[in-house]
Amino acid sequence: MKKILVVDDEKNIGKAFVQLLKRDYEVEVNLSGEDALKRLDGYRPDIVFLDINMPGMDGIETLRELVKKPDHSPVVMMTAYGTIETAVEAMKLGAADYIQKPFSNDEVKLLIRKILELNCLKREVAYYRASSQTEFSFDQIVGVGEELEKVKEIARRVAPTESTVFIRGESGTGKELLARAIHYSSHRRHGPFVAVNCAAIPEEIIESELFGHRKGSFTGAIEDRTGKFRSADDGTIFLDEVGDMSLKVQAKILRVLEERMVTPVGGTEAHEINVRVIAATNQDVEEMVKKGGFREDLYYRLNVVPLHVPPLRQRREDIPSLAEHFIRRFTHGDTKVTISKALINRLAEYDWPGNIRELRNAIER
Where in this protein does the record say 4-aspartylphosphate is found (predicted)? Predict the structure, then answer.
């Protein structure tokens, strides 16, 4: 049963809460902020209803102390008419919401459901983030080859920094997996990881996808759009296949990297962004620079920490462990499903032009 703590010096308020909620919730009442803080030392209710106007330690003082506690309960401030400004101040201090006296039974029940649903959502997000950190750790990059180990070691060292990383390698070698491992091993791991396949976005809309647009800026722009760079704020943007971008888009990317500002298509206001950039390509960018197909200044901006992921044909020793890894994934860990040594040898003899992606698909079939 979910627990509700009511903190109010008016006894009739506490009694009203108990009477209203006792069938569905475990309700406890404290008559002062001091008593509530003592109780919360060994007790974690799902919601705290806290009155603003109390003798002694008032609601704001109590809230200031309560939010210092790690993993504190969400707090709903109870306010009388004329103290709405104080309730807004409480929200800035960390209160989840407020409710104005006199309130109806339906208002209280609706607010409780809303807070509990939000709590559930926060737990799911926390679980997803924790799972992502495990799923996309460097340990999940399967392989024991010397060249791959060197790549992983450099990536581990650069992950905690803010350096731009440029990952090179053929299609299907696991460039995005490496980029995610860098992100989830950095201090930005709680922020978003936004992957953009630059080769898959039509030229006419790529600027809108990357930088956003204002409503009415072009045919079909029926609402404002944030864009990938702003969506990645406080996190990492992964620009895959940057070699496929036009020179016009390359120039705009360079400007964003230099100024750390993004202006939506059709807009005049620039928005500051805080993103780390990891780029990747399967092309010979140095040759593209020589031929004028890729901006030299952008190349140097991206190529701060270069990493090269070797193709599977150059790390045949990893094929058995990769095959085993995919079998376990597709059979949900069933150890009864095995692969014969003869088949392993056949897999190791093949060149795998599609690299790990091709091997994965072959195992799944």
Answer: 51
